[in-house]
Amino acid sequence: QSALSQPASVSGSPGQSITISCTGTSSDVGGNNFASWYQQHPGEAPKLIIHAVSNRPSGVSNRFSGSKSGNTASLTISGLQVEDEADYYCSSYTSSNTYVFGTGTKVTVL
Amino acid sequence: QVQLVQSGAEVKEPGASLKVSCKASGNTFTSYVFHWVRQAPGQRLEWMGAIKAGNGNTYYSQNFQGRGTITRDTSATTAYMELSSLRSEDTAVYYCVRELEDSFKFDDWGQGTLVTVSS
């Protein structure tokens, strides 16, 4: 199972919006609605920020939103803040009853 | 609040075996699926496998099939991950992750266990 494809880095200024893509196949992202997104700050465990493509867990800022089109899921961060600087990973359930993560995206706030 | 507490850091020689534990506090241990995810230094997250705590069914990534084993002890509310024939590329932080069965999301993460494989 190959990793889902994400851009290596995305940057933006405070207050701007950025979007991170996550491209898979019809066997994972495109084949179900179980794409999730995780935020990871250096030295910490990842934190769930989006599940089931576009659902936010309680306590997660509404500046984070998710969507999907075909085999590509996307995470949008609106009103970018300094504390959003982190690594972001997508994940998807697969047709083999397994999971796969993305390659990861480093978000830099300029 | 459910917590996942993992065993401590380990240093192993190439060829050795590893067993990491993940103690879950809180109720209804058997309602969850326990996953193992690893992250090599500076690298991406990698899903290794999982076990349904209720019936013991296991699922593995192709990369770990045959070399990795995931088990659980319901009376001890603990999940385990064993990895054999260790090599330097297995040096990583290993995370235990909890999913409410059929929720398809990784809600809770353990603190991580650093495993270093070196001669």
Characterization of this structure:
The complex is a heterodimer of chains A (110) and B (119). Chain A has strands spanning 9-12, 18-23, 36-40, 47-50, 64-69, 72-77, 86-93, 99-101, 105-109. Chain A has 110 residues and is an all-beta fold. In chain A, a hairpin with a 6-residue loop joins β3 and β4. Helix content of chain A is 0%, strand content 43%. Chain B is mostly beta strands and 119 residues long. Chain B is 0% helix and 50% strand. Chain B contains no helices and 11 strands. In chain B, the strands form 2 sheets. In chain B, strands 2, 4, 5, 6, 9, 10 and 11 form a 7-stranded mixed beta sheet that branches. Chain B has a 4-stranded antiparallel beta sheet with strand order 1-3-8-7, with no helix packed on it. Chain B is globular and about 40 Å long. The termini of chain B are far apart. The A-B interface holds A 1, 3, 34, 36, 38, 40, 45-48, 51-52, 57, 89, 91, 93, 97-104 and B 35, 37, 44-47, 49-50, 59-62, 95, 103-107, 109-112.
Which key features would you list for this structure?
heterodimer, A: 110 residues, mainly beta, 6-stranded mixed sheet, 3-stranded antiparallel sheet, 9 strands, B: 119 residues, 7-stranded mixed sheet, 4-stranded antiparallel sheet, 11 strands, 0% helix, 50% strand
What is the distance, rounded to the nearest whole angstrom, between the alpha carbons of the first and last residues of chain B? 40 Å
Largest binding interface between chains: A-B, 24 and 22 residues
Arithmetic mean of pLDDT of chain A: 97
How is the main sheet of chain B built? 7 strands, mixed
**Which whole number gives the mean pLDDT of chain B?**
95
Order of helices and strands of chain B: EEEEEEEEEEE
Shape of chain A: globular
Radius of gyration of chain A: 13 Å
Low-confidence stretches of chain A: none
Please give the number of β-strands of chain A: 9
Q: By helix and strand content of chain A, what is the structural category?
A: mainly beta
The N- and C-terminal alpha carbons of chain A lie at a distance of 35 Å
Provide the succession of SSEs of chain A.
EEEEEEEEE
